[in-house]
Q: What sequence folds into this?
């Protein structure tokens, strides 16, 4: 089995989707702390925001590939015929679309970190940038919780009473 | 490159992208021909929405960059605050729509 086949395996794709999302959430949480506490250099903030943006992009690609290739044919029917069809109809449908908000939000925060520290203070942007970074964190955690519900619904999908 | 103008353009482009995702998603659920067209474009409706949303964000950022000549603090802060508000509204709108759709309200 070659490396590409391993990466395209269902458990690996889920692991990459979740793992990169955790890195993205952690990066923007760390950036929130830096913005709130005026800690860290401009360079460190740029690197943190870039790591978060790249991680969310990788999570998007891995999760998207899994969703398009496997979810519809293998997982969706189990959930729809199980105890909690709402887990697909409400949770998954919402999750897959609100994920599309994250990359433009992350890139906007990355652009903010390009500012010199004195310019960020002059524009009064430190707190709004922190709030936007925290919004990304909350959105990421919400999507993670939704993914947990969907996984649980699929795991218990075969039980009908 | 004027960084505050880039931030404003990016924030408004992100808002436009959120509106696009919400409107196209709801519209496609209610109008089968649109969902079929999205599926036919790339093989999956979600892939098509992903491609269009990222292209829209890039194009809108480039198009809006020259528009925002005023790049003082209040303008940048307003753009960032509006982006947060539209993110919350987008999440609520999609969750409410799919809840109503599941309960067959529409």
A:
């Amino acid at each position: 089995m070659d490396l590409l086949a391993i990466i395209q395996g269902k458990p690996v794709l889920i692991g990459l989707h979740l793992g990169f999302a955790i890195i993205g959430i952690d990066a923007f949480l760390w950036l929130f702390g830096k913005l709130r506490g005026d800690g860290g250099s401009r360079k460190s903030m740029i690197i943190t925001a870039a790591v978060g943006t790249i991680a969310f992009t990788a999570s998007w690609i891995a999760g998207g590939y899994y969703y398009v290739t496997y979810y519809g044919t293998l997982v969706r029917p189990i959930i729809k015929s199980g105890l909690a069809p709402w887990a697909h109809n409400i949770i998954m449908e919402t999750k897959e679309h609100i994920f599309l908000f994250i990359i433009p939000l992350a890139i906007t925060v990355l652009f903010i970190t390009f500012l010199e520290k004195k310019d960020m203070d002059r524009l009064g942007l430190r707190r709004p940038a922190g709030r936007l970074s925290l919004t990304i964190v909350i959105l990421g955690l919400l999507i993670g919780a939704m993914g947990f519900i969907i996984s649980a619904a699929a795991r218990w999908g075969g039980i009908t009473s | 490159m004027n960084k505050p103008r880039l931030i404003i353009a990016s924030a408004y482009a992100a808002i436009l992208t959120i509106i696009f995702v919400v409107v196209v998603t709801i519209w496609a659920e209610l109008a089968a021909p649109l969902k079929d067209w999205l599926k036919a474009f790339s093989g999956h409706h979600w892939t098509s929405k992903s491609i269009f949303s990222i292209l829209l964000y890039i194009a809108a950022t480039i198009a809006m960059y020259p528009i925002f000549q005023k790049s003082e603090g209040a303008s940048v802060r307003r753009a960032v605050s509006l982006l947060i508000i539209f993110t919350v509204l987008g999440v609520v709108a999609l969750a409410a729509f799919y809840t109503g759709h599941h309960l067959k309200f529409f």
Summary: Chain A touches chain B at residues 60, 64, 67-68, 72, 85-86, 89-90, 93-94, 96-98, 100-101, 103-105, 107-108, 111-112, 114-115, 119, 122-125, 128-129, 131-132, 135, 139, 142 (CB under 8 Å). Chain A is about 85% helix and 0% strand.
